[in-house]
Amino acid sequence: DPQLNQHYTFDNFIEGECNRLARSAGFAVASKPGGTSFNPLMIYGGVGLGKTHLAQAIGNEIKRNLPDKLVIYVSCEKFCQQFVDSLKNNTINDFVNFYQAMDVIIMDDVHNFAGKERTQDIFFHIFNHLHQSSKQIILTSDKPPKDLAGLEERLLSRFKWGLSADMQVPDLETRMAILKKKMYTDGIELPDNVIEYVANQIDNSVRELEGAMVSLLAQATLNKKEIDLNLAKSMLKNFIRNTHKEISMDYIQKLVCDYFEVPVEMVKSKVRKREIVQARQISMYLAKNHTKTSLKSIGAFFGGRDHSTVIYACQTVEDLIETDKKFKAYVQDIQKKLKTS
Ligand code: ADP
Ligand code: MG
């Protein structure tokens, strides 16, 4: 299974209060796929907290116990892309049959289904088919099912069928254990006070924690220095998070079009279909609020329109945000993606 990454195992997944339920449910599922009430198993939590690691570990553990099982790991994003491709190539049946033949499906980041109604429909059918045949479904998401915006109610209700288990930010002790395990695996020794210092400084995500450590090691190697507490202190100061990256209009356009499954060229065209107009207006609104581009240039970028069209688009979007809850959720969701990218 090329989609499974062998490096993510239960062995190197550190257990803590923050992930205890998710980990033990995952382990139960791995020893009896489809045979527990945790179906689907939904693992949710913030960015960089170990959802992908745990989901992959479940897949790898199943293959270790039951090598004949067909296990597929797929990100929701990739699944959506495959669906669009299969529409284009007239291979929807193959696409559906492939997934329905699996014993275990692991789908990562299902919040990315938001706004993609046709892909959700297809997944709804695949889900039902697998669930009815007692095949195991494992999902990850950045929010619990009840807070997922832009997903169809019937799909959400199924996501709630099994067990939803959250992953929280690890406490200091667990963060230190994660760093130690990683150092040990990489064959690197570091003084305890350095590990404690780093774990204390970075307290929002495991991914950032690892990133800080990697950057510290790299800089020490480059400068040919031993790492002690003083060096760690001076170097971590430079580990600034790059949160003020410039956002481009190209990027906004791509994000919005992906979100609504609209071809990118359409936004710049004269087409007046509802979903195209909506994507175009939201793109203009985001460009106005998240770039320093003038209204004139925004209009020019989105198909040679003038600045009054941009003003009208922004006004329309603002009105809809006020009056239409679903629309508001879409825009907020896209804005969040814009900021975390
Ligand atoms: P998410 O999918 O929630 O964004 P990831 O699974 O990609 O997060 O985890 C980010 C990094 O942190 C990965 O390198 C992963 O191996 C590591 N990590 C997260 N949680 C743990 C844990 N409990 N034990 C060991 N490593 C962890
Ligand atoms: Mg992930």
UniProtKB/TrEMBL annotation:
UniProt binding sites for ATP: G48, G50, K51, T52
Domain Chromosomal replication initiator DnaA C-terminal: 248-317
Main localization category: cytoplasm
Domain AAA+ ATPase residue range list: 37-165
Subcellular location: Cytoplasm
Gene Ontology cellular-component annotations: cytoplasm; plasma membrane
Superkingdom, natural source: Bacteria
Region annotated Domain IV, binds dsDNA, chain positions: 221-341
Membrane-spanning residues: none
This protein's UniProt keywords: ATP-binding, Cytoplasm, DNA replication, DNA-binding, Lipid-binding, Nucleotide-binding
GO process terms (BP): DNA replication initiation; regulation of DNA replication
GO molecular function, one term: DNA replication origin binding
Family note: Belongs to the DnaA family.
Biological role stated in the UniProt entry: Plays an essential role in the initiation and regulation of chromosomal replication. ATP-DnaA binds to the origin of replication (oriC) to initiate formation of the DNA replication initiation complex once per cell cycle. Binds the DnaA box (a 9 base pair repeat at the origin) and separates the double-stranded (ds)DNA. Forms a right-handed helical filament on oriC DNA; dsDNA binds to the exterior of the filament while single-stranded (ss)DNA is stabiized in the filament's interior.
Quaternary structure annotation from Swiss-Prot or TrEMBL: Oligomerizes as a right-handed, spiral filament on DNA at oriC.
Domain notes: Domain I is involved in oligomerization and binding regulators, domain II is flexibile and of varying length in different bacteria, domain III forms the AAA+ region, while domain IV binds dsDNA.
Name listed for the protein in its UniProt record: Chromosomal replication initiator protein DnaA
Originating species: Parapedobacter indicus
